[in-house]
Amino acid sequence: AVVSTQSTWRMNFSKRFKNSVTPVFSECGKMVANANGSKVLVRDVNTLQLLQMWVCYDTVRDIVWSPDSNYLASVSGNKIQLWSMSDSAWRSCISETDGGVDSVTWSPDSRHLLVLHQFSVFITIWAVEFATQMFIKNPKGSLYRFSGDGKYLAVIERTECNDYVAVLSTRTWKLTSHFKLPTIDAAGFEWSPCNLELCIWDHMFEHTLYIYSIDGSCLFTHEVKKPISMGLQCVAWSPCGQYIALGTHTHFLYLINRTNRKVAGEMLIPESVSGKTVQYYREEHNAVSGNTIVERLQSQPEHKFQVVTDDHIDMKFTDIVVKKKPKTKPNENVKEKRVKRYGITGIKWSHDSTHLAVLDASIPNTISIWNIADKSITAVLEFVHNPRTFAWHPHLLRLIVASGDNNVSMWEYDGCWIIELPAECSVNVNHANWSSDGNALLLSAKDNFCIGFLE
User: Fold this and answer.
1) Considering just the CA atoms, what is the radius of gyration of the chain in Å?
2) Which among 155, 162, 305, 338 is placed 20 to 30 Å from 455, CA to CA?
3) Burial class, 439, CB count within 10 angstroms (exposed 0-12 / middle 13-18 / buried 19+)
4) What is the CB-side half-sphere exposure of residue 377 using CA atoms within 13 A?
5) 109 near 154, Cβ under 8 Å?
6) Residue in 295, 297, 294, 299 with CA at minimum distance from that of residue 420
C-alpha cells in the first residue's frame, strides 16, 4: 500500500548556483564556498549574500576551509592560494614546484597547511603566518589523520616494503613515537574518539584489525574468522567509541566491542526480509511527478515510497557484468564475464551510535539501516537508481540519500519521503552534506548546486 500521510516539516531551497568543484560548508556552518572556473565565491548560508569573491591564477580544482572558518585555501595547478574572511586585504600564495600538489589539509589550529605532493613523495607542513615549512617523508598516500582533539597527527609511512606509523605533536611538530606495523600493506586507519588509540587494517586480502596506543603498544588484534574470500572492505569507529564496525566482502557486518575486546555482533546482509518485522520502503518508478512543489522554491515531502508488507521480500543480490576489451579486431564480439561483486562498501554511524546505515555492492540500489541495540535491521530503502551518497543528520536520527537525480530521499522512524527539487533550483544531486548545525543541506552536482533549509 502507498502511505498518504505527510511529514510535518517542509524544505525551502535556494536558487541554483554554478560551480566547477564540489562546494563546501565552513566548519561553523554559516558560510558556503564554491568555485566557478578561476573564481572563488563565499556566501552567507542563511541570506545567500555574496560575502567574498576572489580570482585565482588558474582554474580552481579544490577548495578547503580552515577549522576556525577564517581561512580558505584554493588549489590551482601547482599553486595554493590562501584567503582570509576577517581581512579581505590579506592573501598568500604557496608554489609547489617539486612533484605538484595532490591534496591540501588544514591543521586543527588553522595556522598550518599540510600539502601532500603527487606520487606521495612527501608532505610539506606550511606555517601560514610565518611562511616556514617542515617535511614528512615517505607518506603512504593520504593515510594521515589528526586526532579529534587536534593534539596529534598520525601518518602511515612506507619504507623498504614495510609499514610504519609516525605520531607527531601538533604543538611542536616533533615526533612523539614511531613504530613498525605487522601489516603486509596497510589500507587505512582511524583515530579512536578518545584520541589515544589507532585502529589500523590491512589490505583487502588480509583479515586482521589492529588497535595501537599512540606510544606504539599493540593493545589487541582481531582476525575475522574464516571462511572469507577476502579481507576487510571498510571500517568505522562509532562516535561513542564503544564499537568498531567492520564491513567485509561476504556481506558480513561485524561489531567489535572496544571495552571487552570481543565480537559484540555478527550480522549478515540477508537475501530476504519480512515486511512485517522490517520497515521496507520501495521507491515508485513514477515517484518524481512534480506535484511535491507547494510554492516557488518550496517543497513538502510526500510518501512516494511504497511500504511493502509481504512476508518474503527478495533483497535482489545481483551479478555485475564486466566487459573485456577486444584485443585484436575491433569488430569482434565483446566477451562477457560474470563476476560476483562481494562486499559492504559503505557504513556510516548515526550521531548517537544507535544505528548504522549500510550499503552493499551486490545490492547497489538498496540501503539497510541497522539497530545496534538488538543487532537487527530496522529499515530497508530500495531506490530506482543506485545511491550516490548518504549522510546522517549531525544531531538527529535522520538519513539523507541522493541517487543522482533531481530529488533527495529522507528517512526517519516515522517514514521515508522523497523531496523533489523545484524547477528553479533543479540539481541532479551527486553529493549531499549537512551543515555542522544541521540547519542546511548542501546539494551539488558536477556543475551546479543549491542549498536546502528544513522548516
Assistant:
1) 23
2) 305
3) middle
4) 25
5) no
6) 299
The 3-class SS string of 376-400 reads EEEEEEECCCCCCEEEECCCCCCEE
Q: Which three cell numbers stand for residue 310?
A: 509481504
Question: How many H helices and E strands in the chain?
Answer: 0, 45
Query: Are residues 195 and 203 in contact, defined by beta-carbon separation less than 8 angstroms?
Result: no
Read off the pLDDT of residues 62-96 as tens digits, 9 standing for 90 and up: 999 999 999 999 999 889 999 999 998 899 999 87
* Alpha-carbon gap, residue 364 to 65, rounded angstroms: 32
In the numeric block, which cell numbers belong to residue 156? 602511515
CB neighbours of residue 386 within 10 Å: 13
Give the pLDDT of residue 3: 27
Question: What residues have CB less than 8 Å from 344, skipping those under 6 apart?
Answer: 233, 234, 247, 248, 249, 251, 252, 253, 269, 358, 359, 360, 361
pTM: 0.88
Taking Cα atoms as reference points, which of 148, 124, 161, 232 lies closest to residue 197?
Answer: 148
Q: What is the largest CA-CA distance in the chain?
A: 67
Contact between 269 and 344 under an 8 Å Cβ cutoff? The reply is: yes
What's the pLDDT score for residue 321? 47
- At 300 the three-state DSSP class reads coil
Which H or E run includes 442? Answer: strand 440-444
Separation CA 437–CA 318 (nearest Å): 38
> What's 30-95 look like in SS3?
CEEEEEECCEEEEEECCCCCEEEEEECCCCCCEEEECCCCCEEEEEECCEEEEEECCCCCCEEEEE
Q: What is the DSSP letter of 187?
A: -
Backbone angles phi, psi at 267, to 5 degrees: -115, 135
70 — phi, psi (to 5°)? -95, -30
